[in-house]
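Work Package 4 report. The design task specified in the project plan requires that, given a folded chain encoded as structure tokens, an amino acid be chosen for each position. We show below one input record used in the internal validation round.
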């Protein structure tokens, strides 16, 4: 009997057809009263990129994904306790953090921000993952 719930399972050979991958993953995991959300980018759940070249638009889509995944797990944005944001260029920081801030106004999570040389696909400008709780 599993001690956790996997949400939106997928295989990377379907989501990354341009790469030779074959990994079984999921978009979120609910373990007890904690929800771990996989890094979200500017791609909807059908694989369509939103905001080519636009870090703010990609962030908006990523946050829509985060919201939906948390709700599917039984939580919501107000219960986020930690965010980790990845940028491929520090010049995107202001636009990305302003957009995330709109979604998390009044939440006060802890956060980590990183600038990395690249993400999983060249068109992705940012990625965000979160940890949230499910209230008792």
């Amino acid at each position: 009997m599993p001690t956790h719930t996997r949400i939106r399972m997928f295989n990377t050979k379907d989501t990354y057809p341009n790469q030779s991958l074959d990994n079984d993953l999921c978009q979120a995991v609910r373990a007890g009263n904690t929800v771990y959300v996989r890094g979200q980018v500017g791609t909807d759940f059908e694989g369509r990129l939103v905001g080519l070249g636009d870090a703010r638009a990609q962030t908006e889509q990523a946050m829509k994904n985060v919201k939906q995944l948390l709700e599917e797990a039984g939580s919501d944005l107000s219960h986020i306790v930690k965010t980790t944001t990845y940028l491929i260029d520090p010049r995107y920081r202001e636009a990305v953090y302003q957009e995330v801030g709109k979604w998390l106004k009044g939440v006060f999570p802890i956060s980590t921000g990183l600038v990395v040389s690249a993400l999983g696909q060249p068109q992705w400008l940012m990625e965000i993952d979160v940890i949230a709780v499910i209230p008792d």
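The helical segments are 12-15, 55-73, 93-103. Validation will be extended to a larger panel in the next phase.
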